[in-house]
Specification:
Elements (H helix, E strand, L loop, with lengths): L1 H27 L10 H10 L6 E4 L6 E5 L1 H6 L3 E6 L4 E8 L3 E3 L4 E4 L11 E7 L6 E12 L13 E6 L6 E3 L7 E5 L7 E7 L7 E10 L8 E5 L3 E5 L13 E7 L5 E8 L5 E2 L27 H5 L3 E4 L20 E2 L14 E3 L4 E7 L13 E10 L3
Parallel strand pairs: 4-6, 5-7, 14-16
Antiparallel strand pairs: 1-2, 2-4, 3-4, 6-13, 7-12, 8-11, 8-13, 9-10, 9-12, 15-23, 16-22, 17-21, 17-23, 18-23, 19-20, 19-22
The protein binds 2-acetamido-2-deoxy-beta-D-glucopyranose.
2-acetamido-2-deoxy-beta-D-glucopyranose binds next to strand 13.
InterPro entries: CUB_dom (IPR000859), CUB_metazoa (IPR058698)
Organism: Cinara cedri
Protein name: CUB domain
Length: 394
């Protein structure tokens, strides 16, 4: 008790000169809550003291993340006030930028011109993202809204609109279509230059909208090496890019989806979101033989699809697992295959289709080849898979 009193006394004496500075500043800066320095306010200032060191806050509509700053700081940094924070001593300052701007903040929202309206002009829109410090290891992009034009529906190539990220250590990212709710991590460890996000819109009369949250991630919080997507929850849903109604998976993708192993979880179960949520290429086989002869794709001469050509699916999803070690979950047999393509996630027509794997780390690799074949978009919707980590049995 005594020791506590002594230490808080010491703290106070250290704070007093600082407190004086705060008040000195308050007179010069329009910081409304401090304009009446009553004794009550002094108490609040003490509570509030750590806040000018940038703290995160939630905007008044709870939709966006901002930094708790005083009104003046927010204004000179070109932020926008979105309600009070820190007991009313600061404002939740949200940073929103559009085309031809430069990001030099941790959390920034990149939106289309006219947002939240739609954009149907033709043109290019790019954003430069500067690392806020040398320790920034990755940029996380959260696609709060991502509605660009669809790719060529036969090939999956992004032709009308493209969204491209360049400049970092990761391979360039190139996508289009509908990706709201998706996220990506982009490595910037060794990046000397700024990262550039470039959106190219080549045709009018499409309605586009985007709202992308850009967060700068330090090394300690980074996603593991090579993970384009990193899911932190023990239960969740993963989807390939442009998994949507009337969508189609994108050509030319090669990336890894990672799921963080939760504490006391030893394996993971994957299930398609519904019976139509695994469509990566024409059906390979069925009980009665070969489905979908592929008449319309010109090149596919041999109707007999052997196991070998199955292994060569140029559009595929891979999951590491040793088939000799496959685990049979309670719901039925689930053989963990390395390679998945065609119209079934499970290799046999197991129902329900459910695959369990205890190979760690929990990852899936998406490999979609170049869009040099024309295929039925209905056979190429992509993948939506629900996952659930399983407790270690002790
Ligand atoms: C940026 O903000 C996120 C959360 O929104 C936080 O986790 C991260 O540590 C911040 N990055 C830096 C460099 O402060």
């Amino acid at each position: 008790m005594k020791a506590g009193t002594r230490s808080s006394g010491r703290q106070l004496s250290m704070l007093l000169p600082l407190l004086f500075l705060v008040f000195g500043g308050a007179r010069a800066w329009p910081w409304p809550s401090l304009s009446v320095p009553s004794s009550k306010a002094v108490g609040r200032v003490l509570n509030f003291f750590p806040v000018p060191v940038t703290e995160e806050c939630l905007s008044d509509d709870s939709r966006r993340t901002g930094l708790c700053l005083n009104t003046y700081e927010c204004r000179i940094q070109n932020g926008e006030s979105h309600g009070p924070c820190a007991l009313g001593f600061g404002v939740c300052c949200v940073f929103t930028l559009s085309c031809s701007a430069e990001v030099d903040n941790n959390v920034t929202y990149f939106v289309n011109p006219k947002f939240p309206g739609l954009l149907n002009d033709v043109g290019e829109c790019s954003l430069r993202v500067k690392k806020i410090s040398k320790d920034i290891s990755q940029m996380r992009l959260d696609f709060v809204n991502f509605n660009l034009a669809q790719p060529n529906r036969k090939t999956g190539v992004c032709e009308t609109d493209t969204f491209v990220v360049t400049g970092g250590a990761s391979k360039d990212l190139r996508i289009c279509g509908l990706n709201s709710g998706q996220h990506v991590y982009y490595d910037v460890d060794d990046a000397k230059d700024d990262i550039t996000i470039n959106i190219r819109l080549t045709k009018a009369n499409y309605n586009r909208m985007w709202e992308i949250k850009i967060t700068q991630i330090e090394f300690s919080q980074r996603a593991p090496d090579g993970c384009l997507q990193y899911f932190h929850d023990s239960v969740g849903t993963v989807q390939t890019m442009n998994f949507a109604i009337n969508g189609r998976h994108l050509a030319d993708q090669d990336y890894v989806i990672c799921i963080r192993q939760s504490e006391s979880m030893c394996s993971i179960v994957y299930e398609p979101c519904d019976e139509n949520s695994f469509k990566i290429g024409p059906p390979l086989y069925s009980d009665t033989g070969i489905e979908g002869s592929g008449d319309d794709n010109g090149g596919g001469g041999n109707p007999m699809v052997s196991m070998d050509s199955f292994r060569e699916c140029s559009d595929r999803v891979m999951m590491p697992c040793d088939s000799e070690e496959f685990i049979t979950p309670q719901g039925g047999p689930g053989i963990c295959d390395l390679l998945h393509c065609g119209s079934n996630f499970c290799s046999d027509k197991e129902t329900p289709c459910r695959i369990e794997s205890s190979t760690t780390p929990f990852v899936m690799r998406v490999q979609f080849g170049p869009g040099n074949r024309e295929e039925n978009p209905e056979d190429n919707l992509g993948m939506c898979i629900r996952y659930e980590q399983q407790q270690c049995s002790s």
